[in-house]
Amino acid sequence: MNHIVWDGSPALFSLGGFELRWYSLFFALTFYLGYKFMERVFAEKGRDVSFIEPLLWHVAIGTIAGARLGHCLFYEPGYYLSHPIEILMVWKGGLASHGGAVGILLGLILYCKKYKESLIWLLDHLSIPMALGACFIRLGNFFNSEILGNITDVPWAIVFKKVDSLPRHPAQLYESFSYLIIFLILLTIYRKSKVDIRSGRMFGFFISAVFSVRLMIEFVKLRQEAYDTALALNTGQLLSIPFIIIGLYLCLFFKQTEKQTAL
User: Fold this and answer.
1) Quick one: how far is CA 220 from the chain centroid?
2) pTM for the whole structure
């Protein structure tokens, strides 16, 4: 069977010693679009738009620090505990979405304490650009020929030529497309809702949907670490379960303390 062959360069362009990768471009685009979206939300809701820049920095630092620590401690603890200085070497690669989620939450908690903002209000609105950002990040993984799927003979299998000559599930594209759908659902709710929406429901749907997708697609992805091969679920799936539970709780049982006006 003839399969699609992917041999694209991970770099958008190189100039001298400088190289701009698609992954970096998508990562930066995530924060730019998130900034512009929240700028519009703040203006529509009568909030001080000057608070958006510190919000961006809290989210950006939380994302990078949390994702890096998550990768080092969840997926390669033995290596990084023996080489702690390399934890700081983010440019070498290795970011974990679960750690990024925790890092964002901690960054937002600090932001809300300083600027007297509602944490759940921010999470509800940030869930929209975060879903789009997850879509972009997995596209970046595709360009890098990483986060590979298992070997398969399905008609849409892709051979990642920079890795080997075996047809594999395009797991990155499965996730990217799924996150795009989640983004469109959230954006539709935001645009169309004309009634009060219980606070926490948007964010609850976001994290339960995103990590449910992650849990399911992990079944067709290569396991990242050998130590979890004996388990029915891999590390990424086990880490996804608490997020799914929290999301369902926010959707179904969380009680707001004050009414949230239409999103």
Assistant:
1) 19
2) 0.85
